[in-house]
Amino acid sequence: MATTAWLRSVVAVGVLTCGAVLLTAQGRGGAQSGTAFPGGRMNEDGSLMPAGPSSTLFSQEAYTQYEILEPGSEAFAITYLLESARAGATEITNATRAGSMGTNISVFDPRTGQPVKFTYDLGANGQYAIRATLPFAVPEGGIGRVLIYKTYTDARTYQVSGDTITWVRSLSGYRLGVVLPKGYAFVSSNVAAQMSTLPDGRLKLAFANPSGQANNLTIHAKKTPAAFTPSPYTDMFFDDIKTLYDLGAPETGTFSVEQTYSDPRKGATATIDILNYLPLSNLKVVDLDTAATLTPVKAGAATRVTLGVPITNDKQSAHLRVTGTGSDGYRLVNGELVFDRELHGLRNTVVLPAGWEISGVSQSGTVGRTREGRVFVALVNLNAENQYRVTIRARK
Fold first, then answer.
1. What secondary structure letter does DSSP report for 275?
2. Which residues contact residue 358 at a Cβ distance below 8 angstroms, ignoring those fewer than 6 apart?
3. Residue-number span of the structural domain to which 381 is assigned
4. For a Cys-Cys bond, which of 84, 207, 261, 393 suits 193, CB 3.0-4.6 Å?
């Protein structure tokens, strides 16, 4: 499909846990460097500076979790799953944000769960950076990835006043989780988020910005005697799944599908779940760590592939790409293109055939164009339900 090569150049990631409660509070957006207005920037003459046209098929690529440590430490622990699709790359670099100090760093290979070699040095640009050595060079058509644990100390981010703490940070447009210290409850949070209680009693927020823009987050929390019971929620943000529907000519009623995701379920095989809700012909499954093609095998109602490395611990996951051809829910009605079906997962992007223009979308989504000029709709499902129905209409 025309968009596949471009999609593979996009960096991706994911993992998390939580439940569904909305926390909101009045917040004030801080100005960035230079002249700014809420939501954007201004030219010197006071006119608004527009962003460029959207051309990114998927947002919410990297997942980051921040665990706020005990008050007085000025520190927070970070879990970061980072990827690179650059064929031939032998390392992945992760810079420390200016003003933060990185310590307690460890890096693992998500394929095997084993530690990988890394350095943490000051670069020529004046920033410290982790340089993690990949177990092998990124293969053509594959994706290299590392799981990073680190602790940042930053007094600008973490402030304490009596039994109240304030945590403020500009978090880029990734899928995000923020965990309070144990024994603390939320006073307010200025970003709409899901909330859950972890097994150890700590409270956690999870959120993403559908536009892929930064979240300027401010959390106020206070010490509490309340004992919180762990939440029984399964959080959609745990999953880095993303699905591309590349529509063929509407009179054919067919579309190409490409789905990529990480599967942390333990075992020597992985189940191809997309087949439960979307029949596919020309099915192909690729291990993105090695770019090796895996052979799907029917086992009763399920279709499975055998993994090169069995999943045995919580630092591991299989990284898979599933492709095929579908036809359910796509048709031409009185000269109008109609794509109408149930979608699953956090991120789904639908690319229209060349020459067709969007006339309606039943769910919220961002609109852009590929480098070839084809219109796409990028949908980010922020509801707790994993599936939802979408209707897209277009005219030529």
1. G
2. 352, 367, 375, 377, 392, 393, 394
3. 239-395
4. 207
